Amino acid sequence: MAKWMAAVTAMAVLPCAAQWRLVHEENFASGAPLDTSYWSIETGMHRNREAQYYLPDNVRVANGMLTIEARRQEVPNAAYKPGSRSWRTEKRTAQYTSGSLAAKQPLHFGRVEVVARGPSGAGVWPAIWLLHESAGVYGEIDLFEAVGKHPDTTFAGVHWGSEPRTRQHRNSSLLLPKFENNWHTHVLEWTPQRIAVTVDGRPVFSFDPSDAARPGHDPLRKPMHLRINLALGGSWGGPIDDSKLPARLDIASVRVWRWEPESLAAIEPPTIPSRLRAPGPSAPAALTAQTDADPGGAGVPGSGPPALSDAPAPAPRWGR
């Protein structure tokens, strides 16, 4: 026993090729509420001429998952200004509501792993992303985006630039049959040398942050806040199919690791077991799609979120 413990201790302090420290974890299957010390919940209309008004009531934890729900629902616009020409303030009411989360503390390089199940239908626009926004500097990393007008497709990419009209973009997409309404594991690994995104262990996007840098500006190496939201319509979402509402973005778990290159105690992050990475006809019942009878998965045997394993597994490797 003593020899075994000594071996385990030795392995724990050995430096790894990629070093990470777990700094936040939420497994909603445990029944724990949303960690409001970590997350803030947005209110109002914010981006991309989207149709929804964000409300805290559209974010809930139930049935072993975090659910962000988009609804056809008329609500007053608190920012309304008579005579305004801004899309955020010109309307007295909004016709749709949804939910949006933003991490209170920034991440400066790290690994993000989210197990999620997105909706289908024209106009839906779920996203998991990181944002840095300050005077003259804008940097964005999209870990996951999907739009209903492009079924069975997941998108990932980066955006940077001081002004919206001159902002630059690099992105990629992956076509996955039966992608919507099924559980998938989305992973971002972000270091000073590489931004890399996978879904269910499959590479989707990679980028060198140096390619976005110029003298005095390094937008993709700035601290960023993690965000999870479900938008409707807007500049990319397009026309909304009301018959598909309410729509739901379900989250089974969120794990965040900080990149610590100098830490000898850093360990490889545990990842979702391989049996949960590639949902398909032979996947376990925990990964079955939502049903018309119960779109949220409640009360349907085997339709809840996948169970997570604490056993460590090798993380994806990315080199220049």
TrEMBL record:
Q: Which GO terms describe its biological process?
A: carbohydrate metabolic process
| Listed InterPro entries | Beta-glucanase-like, ConA-like_dom_sf, Glycosyl_Hydrlase_16
According to its UniProt record, which protein family does this protein belong to? Belongs to the glycosyl hydrolase 16 family.
Domain (GH16): residue spans on this chain: 2-262
The record lists the membrane-crossing segments as none
Q: Where is this region: Disordered?
A: 271-320
Q: Which molecular-function annotations from GO does this UniProt entry contain?
A: hydrolase activity, hydrolyzing O-glycosyl compounds
| CDD domains the UniProt entry points to | GH16_laminarinase_like (cd08023)
- According to UniProt, the name of this protein is Family 16 glycosylhydrolase
